[in-house]
Design a protein that fits this description.
The protein is an alpha/beta fold. It has three domains: 183 residues, Class I glutamine amidotransferase (GATase) domain (Rossmann fold), CATH 3.40.50; 192 residues, Rossmann fold, CATH 3.40.50.620; 170 residues, GMP Synthetase, Chain A, domain 3, CATH 3.30.300.10. The protein has 15 helices and 26 strands. Strands 2-1-3-4-9-8-7-5-6 form a nine-stranded mixed β-sheet, sandwiched between helices. Strands 16-17-18-19-26-23-21 form a seven-stranded mixed β-sheet. A hairpin with a 4-residue loop joins strand 8 and strand 9. The two termini are 39 Å apart. Bound molecules: xanthosine-5'-monophosphate (XMP). The site of xanthosine-5'-monophosphate has 10 residues, from loops.
């Protein structure tokens, strides 16, 4: 059983709120995420409330809000980014559009405030900002505690009432002292006690599985990812291999060798559905539609397998590797429209849940916590330390285009008319890419801030055709292009594994874009990134020798006209291209 949450994070927009709750748990304090509009009466047992950041402006129609009665509970409240603006507005202050946006690193000047939240933190420090709106006037009873060159109210406080807020994101790793702010809030302001430690949990989880499953058996869809593998292994330990069965669906969107890798986990069968996915995706170019179709087809395959193997008669229940963020993102909060329904929460599954026929041993854990459980039960590092790989697979690393289109020369390079996904101020953007001629991160960052309508910058490593002679071609997801990408990805994985470079980066997507010539229609983009949690990421430059070895091999793949390097940090570019 989990303890009662001491800190509740109110979700004002879904992107960073989980990070806040996870960071609080890392401090040893159990925290949960709730919908921002949760009635105050349901929050009165919390020791502290955090209002998260979010993509809206407080003046947007239907923008998330909180029950104003939370400010009368006598419970301390901390607002972060949008949360600060919402507090300012609801408590009688003023919010306005900033003269310019502030995205990325900033220098905070924090007053020498003798206050529990800011204890030991006064002075100059690096913080991470992502906002356009600012607090113009603080509410009565508040004083301004910190500022940056762009933001006059970077932190404000009304200590007598236990109300605090910051414009910067203290939950991301780039805010170098963020953890101290959270620790001060949890322990000094809210008086929380340590009640959460994810170590030594496996025996408890196994007992919970036995209680939930009873005398029945468990059936799993295993993806090869960390979550479903740990859940599958826990159930196998709890019930014995005879009572647990797994199926792995080959969607045709998997990496080279993946099916064999998963097969080695044992105790499972492989369902081939490559044709079904490719047929459904034929001719589709829009990134969101691709995602949607893949989700739908996956549910169809699941239903077909369950039906055909009569796996859900009264002797069987379904096991899932659902983790905490999956349950919240599909939880029907006011922001649900913004967030994809996770395939572990579609209608058919909800019905099984209502009938008590689902077991989800990891549903209150975050990814890092799942890895800790995996280590506790001695799962191989080869599995637990895998780079994250997106559920929709290679489909979101294989860019499509509706039209043939030439590159557009500019003073800085060439505008490549494909639409890659980016994230600016918490919301997603689809914009073209700028190709420059040098592998220069500083220049890339400068240009991306200066040129509107571009969210990513690439530079060639090596090409068969001069970049200026390339063009973007209309194309969708075909078996041929997926195979090309699979080969390219396989080469990069092999070479980075041999050189140990895979341990130096957090993730290394290899992307196929429809940029090339009539003979060789595609190019490969290398996207090694450093990150802590995937929420923000730095593009990193690998050594020239490895880069050249990789590009030489990639240019031997049939149909590849060039190899490019993605120089974009996140934000403004997401890790995946979609
Ligand atoms: P982005 O592209 O949003 O990705 O910067 C952040 C992290 O999330 C992974 N990702 C996914 N993982 N299903 C997943 O299981 C998905 O649909 C999905 N989309 C993105 C991505 O690989 C990166 O680690």
């Amino acid at each position: 059983m989990n303890p009662t949450a001491q800190i509740i994070v109110l979700d004002a927009g879904g992107q960073y709120c989980h990070l806040i709750a996870r960071k609080v748990r890392d401090l040893g304090v159990y925290a949960e995420v709730c919908a921002s509009e949760t009635p105050a009466a349901e929050l009165s047992s919390a020791k502290g409330i955090v209002i998260s950041g979010g993509p809206s402006s407080v003046y947007d129609p239907d923008s998330p809000t909180v029950d104003p009665a939370i400010f009368s509970l006598g419970v301390p409240v901390l607002g972060i980014c949008y949360g600060q603006q919402l507090m300012a507005l609801l408590l009688g202050g003023e919010v306005r559009k900033g003269v310019k946006g502030e995205y990325g690193l900033a220098t905070l000047e924090l007053d020498d405030a003798a206050d529990p939240l800011f204890a030991g933190l006064a002075g100059t420090q690096q913080v991470w900002m992502s906002h356009r709106d600012v607090v113009g006037r603080v509410p009565e009873g508040f004083s301004v505690i910190g500022r940056t060159s762009t933001c006059a109210v970077a932190a404000m406080a009304a200590p007598a009432r236990g109300f605090y807020s910051v414009q910067f994101h203290l939950e991301v790793v780039h805010t170098t002292r963020g953890k101290e702010y959270l620790a001060n809030f949890a322990f000094r302001v809210c008086g929380c006690q340590k009640d959460w430690d994810v170590r030594h949990r496996a025996p408890m989880l196994e007992q919970e599985i036995r209680e939930c499953v009873g005398t029945r058996n468990v059936f799993f869809f295993v993806s090869g990812g960390v979550d479903s593998s740990v859940a599958f292994a826990l159930c196998t330990r709890a019930l014995g291999a005879d009572r647990v069965r797994g199926v792995y669906v080959d969607t045709g969107l998997m990496r080279e060798g993946e099916t064999d890798f998963v097969r080695r986990m044992g105790n499972l069968t492989v369902e081939h559905a490559e044709e079904q996915f490719l047929t459904a995706l034929a001719g589709v170019t829009d990134p969101e539609r691709k995602r949607h179709i893949i989700g739908e087809e996956f549910v169809r395959v699941q239903e077909r397998i369950i039906e055909s193997r009569r796996l859900l008669d009264e002797n069987w229940i379904l096991g899932q590797g659902t983790i905490y963020p999956d349950t919240i993102e599909s939880g029907g909060t006011a922001k649900a429209a913004l967030i994809k329904t996770h395939h572990n929460r579609v209608a058919g599954i909800q019905k099984l849940m209502a009938a008590g026929r689902i077991v989800e041993p990891l549903k209150s854990f975050y990814k890092d916590e799942v890895r800790a459980v995996g280590r506790e039960i001695s799962l191989a590092g080869e599995l637990l330390d895998r780079h994250p790989f997106p559920g929709p697979g290679l489909a979101i690393r294989c860019l499509c285009s509706e039209f043939d289109a030439p590159l557009r020369p500019t003073a800085e390079g060439f505008i490549v008319p494909v639409h890659s996904v980016g994230v600016q101020g918490d919301s997603r953007t689809y914009a073209p890419v700028l190709a420059i001629d040098a592998l220069d991160h500083a220049r890339a960052t400068e240009l991306i801030n200066a040129i509107s309508g571009v969210n990513r910058v690439i530079a060639p490593v090596e090409t068969r055709v001069p970049v200026g002679n390339m063009q973007v071609r209309a194309c969708s997801l075909t078996a041929e292009r997926l195979e090309r990408l699979r080969k390219a990805d396989g080469i990069v994985r092999r070479l980075t594994h041999e050189t140990g470079y895979d341990h130096e980066v957090w993730q290394f997507p290899v992307i196929l874009i429809p940029l090339g010539s009539a003979e060789s229609p595609d190019s490969v983009v290398l996207r090694p990134v450093d990150s802590v949690d995937g929420m923000t990421a730095q593009s990193v430059l690998m050594k020239a020798e490895l880069r050249e070895r990789i590009s030489t091999e990639l240019l031997h793949v049939a149909g590849v006209a060039g190899v490019f390097y993605d120089l974009t940090h996140k934000p403004p570019g997401t890790i995946e291209w979609e």
